[in-house]
UniProtKB/TrEMBL annotation:
Keywords: ATP-binding, Cell membrane, Ion transport, Membrane, Nucleotide-binding, Potassium, Potassium transport, Transmembrane, Transmembrane helix, Transport. Residues 72-107 are annotated as: Disordered. This is Potassium-transporting ATPase subunit C. One of its GO terms (molecular function) is P-type potassium transmembrane transporter activity. Signal peptide: none annotated. GO terms for cellular component: membrane.
Amino acid sequence: MKALRLSLVFIVICGLIYPLAATGVAQVIFPSKANGSLIEKNGEVVGSKWIGQNFASNKYFHGRVSSIANNASASGSENLAPSNPELKKKTRGKQHRNTTKRKPNNV
């Protein structure tokens, strides 16, 4: 009975009190960061400072291949190994699309 009571106490402390306190402190001290560092344009949320974005122009750095199109509401990834032929195929396809859009440099 003592073990059950102690378990319930720790469930309440670790599962309710601590997360609520940490969230409350974060909202007070860092409200922008606690809410996802959202970027607004004309009053509409268009992205986040910390989540990868899809860029169509070659003037931007292109991050790693995303299986969810950098959509933060989707969860998970394919977790393909660097040696996986499917990942190589996807990466090669993206590289080809990016290089065909580029204009040659006049060197």
